[in-house]
Amino acid sequence: MENNHTPINTILDSLKARAKEFNCLFKVEELLTDYDQDINETLIDVIDIIPEGFQYSNYCQVKIILNGETIQSSDFTDSEWLLSAYLAVQNIKVGSIKVIYTKKFPDESDGPFLEEEKRLIITIANRIGDFIQHQELQHLLNDIKQVKSKRKTDATREWRIAVDLTNRTDSELYIKLTRKMINYLSWKGIIEAVEILQKIGSVKSSIIEALKEGDNIPHLRNKDINIRPYAERVFEIASRNLSGEEIFSCIQKWMHEDRTSFLLKTVINLDSTLGNIADVIRRFRFLSSEGTTLSDYTLKGVRVALIRKIISESLEYINITKTYVEIEDFHHLLKRMIYPTGSHGQLGGKSAGLFLATQIIKGHLHEHPELKEIKTPNTWYITSDGLHNFMDHNDLEDVTEQKYKDLRQVRQEYPHIIQLFKSSQFTPEIIKGLSMALDDFGDKPIIVRSSSLLEDSIGAAFSGKYKSLFLANQGSKEDRLAALMDAIAEVYSSTFGYDPIEYREERGLIDFKEAMGIIIQEVVGNKIGKYYLPAFAGVAFSKNEFRWSPRIKHKDGLIRLVPGLGTRAVDRLSEDFPVLVSPGQPDLRVNVTPDEIIKYSPKFIDVINLETNSFDTIEIAGLLQEYGEEYPGIMKLISVYRDGRITQPSIMDIDFKNDDIIVTCEGLISRSPFMKQIKTILNLLQEKANTSIDIEFASDGKNLYMLQCRPQGTGEESAPVKIPKNIPKNDIIFTTDKFVSNGLVPDITHIVHVVSKNYSELSDVADLLRVGRAVGQLNKLLPKHQFILMGPGRWGSRGDIKLGVNVTYSDINNTSALIEVARKKGNYVPDLSFGTHFFQDLTEAKIRYIPLYPDEGNNLFNEEYLANSPNSLAELIPDYSDLSDVIKVINVSEISPGKVLEIYMNASINRAMAALVKPRNKK
Asked: Which of 130, 300, 442, 764 is the most buried (most CB within 10 A)?
């Protein structure tokens, strides 16, 4: 990324200046927590400390005026270079604080004063106001307690003293207490109190009459609603009808509520910024440390308002989360949030999901002690309005028009959008926040992840639609900060990519003003040689959408496990495999024979190279030969192939350099608490969130970390479909008996067939890429959800393009089924990609996935029909006619008049069939 217009050195100098301010605040805070000291003596000490927080402290003088009395620096003189703030108690001005420079200095934000110094003096003024209020209320409470301790028999006289003390020290609080008491007495049914309410409220003769059903005339209000003339009588009524203890309890409770009323007022105020909210939470924490509490109903209101303001406005989310959070949780969250000045942003969907999952687990540790060791990585957040702040700062507003352009134009322009964002600049306050985050992370590798408002919502997970970028986070502070800003800019640019735009348009979300939050997360793992990586990582699902055995139920769930970084668990890979296991049926494995276990075990691992600052994919065998003994928890992940058998080695007899090592995760699955932990997490989160759950996790070899939690994109639970009999063999296009789910794909009018043999003979990468683009064109032209895609290997995978057609979500989203074909004479193997981002897309879009193994068992594959049918490719997309030998488009109704293709799928008998039949509406 290009240098920011504010040089890094200047920013770092500014951060040092902030350290002065924090140190000043810390010292002031120490003084203002000593309530035994006289107010005037405390303020004298405060005046001596304040200059330490300013740039030119040697030329700084302070004056405080409180209730007409002046306290000032010994040599204070009036000056034109002045900064001031009001002192207020209960929103009533009681004085002021002034800071002056005795000589002229260069102009900053406000004359010679920095913006941070303005905020500093306001913060100190607020704390002095809190201190004064605390002193006054403490004296009042002490007097009340002394009155109560005397236990005089005359309750009326007892409470007259208490009320008089309140009236003398705070008339506004006195009126509030009077109003609350009149309401309290009325709720208890005391007639005298009800009569007073009638006099100061409605002119109706009685409350019952005023609330009479059917009375739809607006109530007239009494112009005189001043309660002060009734105050003395209200407390007389209270003393005759309530015990002294009950009145004392009420007064004490209401005074506590009044003292903390600023919190609720701020969090429910639509104009309050995140900075305002952070300030009032800090003030409340200070007060609560001294015993100030909130009523249950006020506390619930504050929780809900904070969730809505900071995390999510979803009522469903709020309803779940409000029972699992405390105000302290928001304090910890806000300390790690980076946001623009005046921010009203939120965390975004991905952050919201992880926060809720963490809180639910914390709330149920007593029931599930096996979850006590579950952790979350060190995480910082940029709020959702950070994207708009970035675009506004760089005049990029026109980019928002991308979502309304033709998708082909969006695809063409997207690389330029990426570079435009990466060459843009961040605002100084965001850079300062990122610098603080880097100080917190140290030199640990980090990942920059998207967290848009729409992301990870029910029915719109946006799986893999936005960027997530790993950073080695090595080198100088300046280099690390530049790399971090570059990565964030690239994640921001992915908001305007063709896949997310297509995805949003498909779900009616195109007009939603998408806002992109950012998660900056420490990568879980350890340094192993020159590499950094987790021991293992993966994803888990509470619902299993694709069962490899009839004994595995939908509710048994699914886990995809890989060694190293979890990217290989969520991406489709062209030539590698994860370990698949069902947490509800861990003994039912996908692969059983030694040959299958070896063939379908992970061979590669994703790592961060600390020497080259890069994301690398390397062979597991080579890594273990060199660093096997340093790999944390490796014995839980590996098995050894010896004498035709796969066995579990011990640490004493493993030879990392010479043994034939296979990654099976056998020890992790069968001899560790891991499976129970994952199953418990999935069941707990699914129960409390009332939806199926998808989680991402990683382990450093000792502890298990939650990285993400979201609603699982699930298809409808389909019933097994009866496989028709007596269909002529010539009308059967294919059958399969491996990895079959339930369902019916009806009324297919077109087949798009990528011919495996001819595809493998393409030698030019450009031609291989054009096959994917041609499929994307057909995806837009053919009848929606009335065509199927058939072809070799693993479509949309990462790696060797020859092992699968290169497509993205927007290239296939209109098909009704994707059939991946594995022929023995080719090197094509379908990927059991259940749980990858690719598979989640298929599931959400209700696209059926079927792996075909034509050369195995008794499966049928009608090559004659597929090879000899006329090809409509040149007619539909003439620009790709040269690929007619590779891509065949078969119009079923033209070749077989009066018929369509249907696919019948039955998981109970593990069989599927595609056949030409009469259309359903004509049968």
From this structure: 130
Query: What is the pLDDT averaged over residues 157-161?
Result: 58
Q: Rounded to an integer, what distance in angstroms lies between the CA atom of residue 841 and that of residue 435?
A: 36
Closest C-alpha to 913, from 922, 901, 923, 900: 901
Q: Determine the residue type at 47.
A: I
Please give the Cα distance from 382 to 395 (Å, whole number). 20
Residue 417 token pair: 């959008």
Q: Can you give the length of the chain in residues?
A: 923
Q: Sort residue 910 into left (φ over 0), alpha (ψ -120 to 50) or beta.
A: left
Question: 111: left (phi > 0), else alpha (psi -120 to 50), else beta?
Answer: left
> If DSSP codes are grouped into helix, strand and coil, which group holds residue 424?
coil
**C-alpha span between 482 and 519 (Å, rounded):** 17
Token digits for 338? 């980076």
DSSP class of 573:
B
How far is Cα 853 from Cα 860, in angstroms, rounded to an integer? 9
* Token output for 744: 């019916």
Q: What is the pLDDT of residue 456?
A: 61
Q: Is the predicted pLDDT of residue 308 greater than 90, yes or no?
A: yes
User: What secondary structure does DSSP assign to 106-146, as a single string?
Assistant: ---SBTTB-HHHHHHHHHHHHHHHHHHHHHHHHHHHHHHHH
Per-residue pLDDT at 593: 86
The candidate with the shortest Cα–Cα distance to 570, out of 483, 670, 696, is 696
Q: How far is CA 459 from CA 505, 715, 808, in A?
A: 13, 10, 19
Do 354 and 329 touch, CB atoms closer than 8 A? no
In this structure, are strands 337-338 and 379-382 parallel, antiparallel, or unpaired?
parallel
Angle of helix 191-200 versus helix 231-241 axis, rounded to 10: 160
Do domains 8-135 and 524-714 share one topology? The answer is no
CA atoms within 13 A on the CB side of 682: 27
26-52 pLDDT, tens digit per residue, is: 788 888 877 777 888 899 999 999 998
Name the H helices within 566-716: 567-570, 594-599, 620-627, 666-670, 674-689
For residue 768, the SS3 value is helix
Place of tokens 């340094």: 527
Model pLDDT for residues 745-792, shown as the tens digit of each residue:
999 999 999 998 899 888 888 999 999 999 999 999 999 889 999 988
Task: Yes or no: say if 568 and 534 are a contact pair by the CB < 8 Å rule.
Answer: no
Cα–Cα separations (whole angstroms), residue 893 to 224, 729, 867, 870: 84, 18, 16, 12
- Find out whether 787 and 794 touch, Cβ atoms under 8 Å: no
Residue 679 token pair = 């199953």
Q: Closest Cα to residue 636, out of 665, 659, 656, 661?
A: 665
Rg (alpha carbons) of the chain, rounded to whole number: 35
* Sequence-separated (6 or more) residues with CB below 8 Å from residue 845: 506, 813
Please tell me the distance from the alpha carbon of residue 770 to that of residue 443, in angstroms, as a whole number: 42
- Enumerate the domain spans of the chain: 8-135, 150-343, 344-373+381-470+485-514, 524-714, 729-922
524-714 has which fold?
Answer: D-amino Acid Aminotransferase; Chain A, domain 1 (3.30.470)
Between the CA of residue 372 and those of 352, 363, 376, 686, 688, what are the distances in Å?
A: 21, 11, 12, 19, 18
- CB of 787 within 8 A of CB of 748? yes
CATH number for the domain running over 8-135: 3.30.450.40
Distance CA 840, CA 503 (A): 13
On the CB side of 589, CA atoms within 13 Å amount to 16
E strand map for 369-525: 379-382, 446-452, 468-471, 516-522
In tens, the pLDDT along 478-500 reads 999 999 999 999 999 999 988 88
Please count the other Cβ atoms lying within 10 Å of the Cβ belonging to residue 28.
23
